[in-house]
Amino acid sequence: MSGVVDLAAVKAAQEAKAKAEQARAEAARRGGTGAVSPADLVIDVDEAGFERDVLQRSAEVPVVIDFWAEWCQPCKQLSPVLERLAVEYDGRFLLAKIHVDANQLLMQQFGVQGIPAVFAVVAGQALPLFQGAAGEAQIRQTLDQLVQVAEERFGLTGLTVDPDAEPGGASQAPAQAPVGPYESLLNAAAEALDAGDFAGAVQAYKNVLADDPGHPEAKLGLAQAELLQRVRGLDPQRVRQEAAEKPADAQAQIAAADLDLVGGHVEDAFGRLIDAVRRTAGEDRDAVRLRLLELFEVVGAEDPRVAAARRALARALF
Domain named Thioredoxin: which ranges (predicted)? Predict the structure, then answer.
């Protein structure tokens, strides 16, 4: 789900939460409950309404996009499954259907090569999910991962659904949610990241974790900020040359793995450190293992590449 490492994810999460809270407050001011009808969980979207119906809504709920056409036979198999699951998931995601013949620009922007094609947008960030008429078990697994990522990384818990609500309320936000106790610190950390003040961001996240050691957003933010702080000032060519010349040098491999991850080469970073675990012993091996665990935090425990690397690490150690 993660794709390459998104080093702006924490800032995007804060912006998404702020927009969702503003929408909830506006709904409360109007005297509405913010609940939507089950009929509002599946919407037709075109180019004119894409920003409003998908980008803005993705600040409060994951939006799954189904690219389809009437002439597409696999679409006729997939679309009803997605529509049924949208209602079954009870507001944990919103299904946006885009007819490709009438929305060629959106098709090009998402890089759709064939249909059916399914994407998601979470806090304004696009994620490819799958292409073709996938089986329901695969679809459910993918949706479960999407919902988990949206909640853990962006705090998006979805829409409130009321079977008695009038259809047409999908543009309203859910009821007002309380602001978390660490919002000011997390906002300060996100602003520091945006300004390149990685030391300031590290300290802000540590302040949150000192009071709440398990805070998921602070843990992710700290891992990302520390990674950026480490690679600042490194000479990539020199680091990679030294790593190639000294395969058993723990620090050389650690520095190269950091660069690999920042560049989005997740599997290369993991593989490099697992190989280093096999080649080293004692304190050097411990240093490599600990750095690998830190990189797992950056990518996210739900990423399948992390699970595979954990198994490989266990084999290398034992």
Answer: 14-148
- Report the CATH number at residue 258: 1.25.40
Dist CA 42 CA 87 (whole Å)? 8
Active site residue 104: no
96: amino acid identity, one letter: A
Q: Which of these, 143, 262, 198, lies nearest to 11 by C-alpha position?
A: 198
Question: Using alpha carbons only, what angle is made at residue 129 by residues 80 and 89, rounded to the nearest 5 degrees?
Answer: 50
Contact 218, 186 (CB under 8 A): yes
Neighbours of 240 (CB within 10 A): 16
Q: Is 75 a catalytic residue?
A: yes
- Indicate which residue of 9, 10, 43, 72 is catalytic: 72
Q: Which among 43, 63, 64, 75 is annotated as catalytic?
A: 75
Q: Are residues 197 and 127 part of one domain? A: no
Classified as helix, coil or strand, 90 is coil
Q: Taking Cα atoms as reference points, which of 270, 275, 203 lies closest to residue 244?
A: 275
Per residue in 156-177, pLDDT tens? 888 888 888 788 754 444 443 4
E strand or H helix at 125, and its extent? strand 125-131
Task: Domain of residue 309: give its range.
Answer: 183-317
Q: Which two tokens stand for residue 113?
A: 């090569």
Longest dimension (CA), the chain: 68
Which one of 137, 154, 171 terminates a domain?
154
Whichever domain contains 120, its CATH number is 3.40.30.10
> If 0-12 CB within 10 Å is exposed, 13-18 middle and 19+ buried, where does residue 243 land?
buried
- What is the rounded CA–CA span in Å between residue 175 and residue 13? 19
pLDDT tens digit sequence for 57-77: 888 899 999 999 999 999 999
**Average pLDDT per consecutive 10 residues, the chain (318 residues; last block may be shorter):** 42 56 57 73 92 87 94 94 95 95 90 92 87 89 91 81 76 45 81 86 91 86 90 92 94 95 91 95 94 90 86 91
- The verdict on residue 234 lying in a domain is yes
